Amino acid sequence: MNADFPAPARLIVTGAGGLLGREILRLAPESVGLGRSELDITDRAAVDAVLTPGAVVLNCAAYTAVDAAETDRDAAFAANATGPAVLATACAAAGARLIHVSTDYVFPGTARTPYEPGDPTGPATVYGASKLAGEQAVLAAHPGAQVVRTAWVYSGVEGDFVATMRRLERERDTVTVVNDQLGSPTSAADLAAALLELSTRPDAPRVLHATNSGAATWFDLAVAVFTELGADPARVLPCDSSSFPSRTPRPSYSVLSPAAWNAAGLTPLRSWRPALTDALGRLSG
User: Strand, helix or coil at 231?
Assistant: First the structure.
């Protein structure tokens, strides 16, 4: 923790049942964890009831079903835009800080160099548009709020890409994975630790990027998972995105620059490869 800004007296984690929320609570068990059933972040009265002056809210609540959002726009915007706006307004009124987690999907995904926090946004999906609206609402409603964009987050437990590769390694002789989408695989544990550090830094910039460093394709990540499991990585076969047609465009480039995070004196996140080794090691231990 930062010596100049001690740890907040009260940490509140919304979206506590998700993979990132669970990791924050594992690292900071004294936090107040509120899942969807405990707190509807679109309900101002309910939000007001859990806030106290000086608290820090880490908002991990989100609608993350990228494909479903295309036809479920109202639900995506309620969770990703209306909810964060309510949280930000309530936190500002209560004298509480807010750290809001966002996504690489606010960018068009067509760059060839890492996105900086101030680069032009341009979401290509309903999900991305809803998350960008949430960012804008948070920053407008709360002068002290901070937005942290991340990407390719996994815990390896259930539902995420690494978890899927662990399951498919057991079930299939080979698996085919796209090799033309580039990003930074990010351990939920490492991201959780980064957000906890940021909770002690109200002076840090308002918009930051936090991912494990380096870049990989989904194919690279799948090969790494198989390797860590002691399986033959040759069982992972590369393909391009046309092999998996989707109504929802996926970013071909999702690498987020760590420059602003590092320049703020926050601890740089390590490379994605050793982070994956540690994440899978915890699961096998």
Answer: coil
Structure pTM? 0.96
98 alpha carbon, distance to own chain's centre: 15
DSSP 116-163: PTTSPP--SSHHHHHHHHHHHHHHHH-TT-EEEEE-SEE-SSSSSHHH
177 and 239 in contact (C-beta within 8 Å)? yes
- At 225-276, the pLDDT tens digits run 999 999 999 999 999 999 988 889 899 999 999 999 999 999 999 999 999 9
Residue 31, domain extent = 11-160+184-215+254-270
Helices (H), ranges, the chain = 19-27, 44-50, 66-69, 73-77, 83-94, 126-141, 161-171, 188-198, 218-228, 259-263, 272-284
74-123 pLDDT, tens digit each: 999 999 999 999 999 999 999 999 999 999 999 999 999 999 999 999 99
Q: Residue 166 domain-assigned?
A: no
Residue 127 known to be catalytic: yes
CA angle 62, 66, 72 (to 5 degrees): 80
Q: Supply the CATH number for residue 190's domain.
A: 3.40.50.720
Residue 25 CB coordination number (10 Å) = 18
For the chain, how long is the longest CA-to-CA vector?
56
- The number of distinct structural domains making up the chain is 1
CB of 241 closer than 8 Å to CB of 190: no
**Among 105, 127, 154, 253, the one annotated catalytic:** 127
